[in-house]
Design a protein that fits this description.
Largest sheet: 5 strands, antiparallel
Radius of gyration: 19 Å
Number of helices: 5
Strand content: 15-25%
Helix content: 25-40%
Structural class: alpha/beta
Strand order of the largest sheet: 1-4-3-2-5
Shape: elongated
Length: 241
């Protein structure tokens, strides 16, 4: 968390600030006084000095979106981290204005996952929020991977995965596993690994949600949104708190 002094005109909440040399990005989270705001760092703070100048970009964090995000892996800023170039003509804020029309799932609409033990004992209703709880190495990520594979195989829709506080090795393995299964083409991955700042880990989920909402609107298909894991998202919030 950084404190930034403005001589006049404080930036709005959630506005993105950047250092003069574009080395570090901050998000405004609190107004402390009439001239001082507090912001969370979305970038590493190595090399940032006291007294350095920052610029208010006048908008919240926006990520580039298009249908070409499918099969790709991004960071919190929507920048590709899979060693391939990416261009998009449209950008969306991770803090969109409230929508008037709220989509409510039909009560009887069940999502058939193709995993028999789930479909029989704990059927998934479209629009539901579902959590997997278990210790290390019991197969939570394997189950998520299987779900993503079946959704792609049955052409039900697309999957958006947010890796929050993940081990870098796990994210790397997931990417290549999905590639081998032929599932990557129907999946989008967003990562804020455990070596990233608490701000990046806290916001990468919103970047992924923004991509999921974009795909839902543009394709009209079911979008499954995965978070691995929600505990580390809460921990990132505690660090900022």
């Amino acid at each position: 968390v950084v404190e930034i002094y403005f001589e006049k005109g404080l930036p709005k909440l959630h506005n993105l600030l950047v250092t003069r040399d574009n080395n570090a990005f901050f998000e405004v989270t609190e107004k402390e006084t009439d001239t001082v705001i507090r912001a969370i760092s979305l970038s590493p703070l190595e090399g940032i000095e006291r007294g350095e100048e920052v610029v208010d970009l006048g908008r919240p964090l926006t990520i580039p979106v298009s249908l070409k995000i499918l099969g790709r892996m991004f960071n919190v800023f929507g920048e590709p981290i899979d060693n391939a170039s990416f261009r998009s003509s449209e950008k969306r804020s991770i803090f969109p204005e409230a929508k008037k029309n709220v989509i409510t799932p039909q009560e009887s609409s069940i999502l058939e996952t193709g995993i028999k033990v789930i479909d029989l004992f704990t059927p998934f209703k479209k629009g539901d929020k579902i959590g997997f709880f278990g210790g290390a190495g019991v197969g939570k990520t394997v189950l998520i991977t299987e779900l993503m594979h079946n959704i792609s195989l049955k052409k039900i829709g697309y999957s958006v995965f947010a890796g929050i506080g993940e081990r870098i090795r796990e994210g790397n393995e997931l990417y290549f596993t999905l590639k081998e299964l032929g599932t990557l083409k129907d999946t989008v991955l967003y990562f804020g690994e455990m070596d990233k700042s608490a701000g990046a880990r806290f916001r990468v989920g919103l970047s992924a949600v923004t991509a999921a909402e974009y795909l839902r609107e543009k394709t009209g298909k079911d979008i499954l949104f995965f978070v691995d894991n929600i505990f580390r998202y809460a921990m990132a919030g505690m660090e900022l708190g």
